[in-house]
Amino acid sequence: MNTTLVELSKFLSLVLRHKPDVLGLVLDPQGWIPVADLLALTCSPRLVRQ
Length: 50
Description:
This protein is mainly alpha-helical. Helix content is 42%, strand content 0%. The two termini are 22 Å apart.
């Protein structure tokens, strides 16, 4: 599997499942977050909403 995809998967799992509060994210009551808020956390210009 592509290393970048594995790293992205682990990042998303950490942020969305386990520790959204550590990064200052607030999920709505259904557990959702705006994609723009999530992308703003990354330093990678490769991760953009298309």
